[in-house]
Design goal:
The chain folds into 2 domains: 8-19 and 266-371, Aspartate Aminotransferase, domain 1 (Alpha-Beta Complex); 21-263, 3-Layer(aba) Sandwich (Aspartate Aminotransferase, domain 2), CATH 3.40.640.10. It is 34% helix and 15% strand. It has 9 helices and 14 strands. The longest helix is centred in the C-terminal third of the chain and has 21 residues, at 266-286. It is of the alpha/beta class and 373 residues long.
């Protein structure tokens, strides 16, 4: 396939970017505004770059509706860096006997729990271990601790395709904390229900390298002594995310993407597009007589990551390879499922259009007609 041929990129991340965003970035790559230099050459102490940071923060406040008692931190390490930053900032002392609550619904929340165990004495696994991640456990199975410093969950599991359709309710006076990396800005967020939200930008609002932490101000300033300076929320907040050289180009690209979201109707419009896209694919899966099979309970299905098997409930390896190869020949890439679960995975993040999703839908219809037994 020619490298010039237009493709539809279903990558789980780094993910597709809007064509309009790429065009602006291309035009400004060598000379940004009237500076005569590229963003990648620009001092992070310059007025021009400080304006870029402020623009990102202002757009986030506007799109989400973030009040003044929350700080917006632009940090290194993407979402995974925040797995360590959260316990080191929200629990004051290293291994001091404190407890934190973690609900595990897939591979990423499991990794987050294991990271927290490096810094916190008692990481309470709220739900029983599951033999397979296929749904969010019922609320009556949760074992929350009233003394927890915070209650953490992963809003969307990129690998397993599980998403919370609601905001989980914890216990009184326990701050709710969420990793929203893979569904960030795909729907409105009731920020006032959270103590903190963290997200990497490489799926729905930018490129790899940048982590966004939106933190209620009363939770800032209590970091462990072992917390690295660049992960300390107070240091980053006091320096407006410019304590050291930040991921400058990632911040710039995030600003372009956020403006694109605003220009295209904001989070309400992103949510509408997301629902339209996923319904196009789930409709084919659910009406295929198990030629396509989703193992996820419908009440826990992700809108943005759709893993499925081809050729039956257990999948047919040869048929799934053929599906990936034939899709690629038709200009659709990155549809192979994660190595830990196999099968196929279609990632439908903010930049994916409904029209592009319809191309995949039609391919699935045609593929089934060709290979059904």
């Amino acid at each position: 396939m020619s490298v010039q041929q237009k493709v539809i990129n279903f990558s789980p991340g780094p993910a597709k970017l809007p064509a309009e965003v790429l065009k602006i970035a291309q035009n400004e790559l060598i000379h940004y505004a009237n500076t005569g230099i590229s963003i990648m050459e620009m001092s992070h102490r310059s007025q021009e770059f400080e304006a870029i940071v402020k623009n990102v923060q202002n757009l986030l406040r506007e799109l989400i509706g973030i009040p003044d008692n929350y700080s917006i931190l632009l940090m290194h390490g993407s979402g995974t860096g925040q797995f360590a930053a959260l316990p080191m900032n929200l629990v004051s002392q290293f291994m001091d006997g404190s407890v934190v609550d973690y609900i595990v619904t897939g591979a990423w929340s499991d990794k987050t729990l294991k990271e927290a165990q490096k810094y916190v004495s008692n990481v309470n696994r709220v739900t029983p271990k599951q033999t397979a991640y296929v749904e969010i456990p019922e609320r009556n199975q949760w074992k929350l601790d009233a003394n927890a410093k915070y209650f953490f969950y992963t809003d969307n599991e990129t690998i397993h395709g599980i998403e919370f359709p609601y905001i989980p309710e914890g216990l009184p006076n326990v701050p709710l904390v969420a990793d929203m990396t893979s569904n960030f800005l795909t729907r409105p967020i009731d920020i006032k229900k959270y103590g903190a939200i963290v997200a990497g930008t490489q799926k729905n609002c930018g490129i790899a390298g940048l982590g966004i932490a939106i933190v209620r101000k009363d939770l800032i300033g209590k970091a462990m002594s072992v917390c690295p300076s660049i992960m300390d929320y107070k240091i980053m907040d006091d320096n407006n995310s410019l304590y050291n050289t930040p991921p400058v180009y990632s911040i710039y690209m995030c600003g372009l993407f956020l403006q694109w979201i605003k220009d295209n109707g904001g989070l309400e419009a992103m949510a509408k597009r997301s629902t339209e896209r996923c319904q196009l694919i789930y409709d084919i899966i659910d009406n295929s007589n198990d030629f396509y099979y989703s193992p996820i309970n419908p009440n826990s299905r992700s809108r943005v990551n759709i893993p499925f098997r081809v050729g039956g409930k257990s999948g047919d390896t040869d048929l799934e390879k053929r599906f990936v190869d034939e899709a690629k020949a038709k200009g659709m890439i990155q549809l192979k499922g994660h190595r830990s679960v196999g099968g196929i995975r279609a990632s439908l993040f903010n930049a994916m259009t409904v029209e592009e999703t319809q191309v995949l839908r039609q391919f699935m219809i045609d593929f089934q007609k060709t290979y059904k037994k």
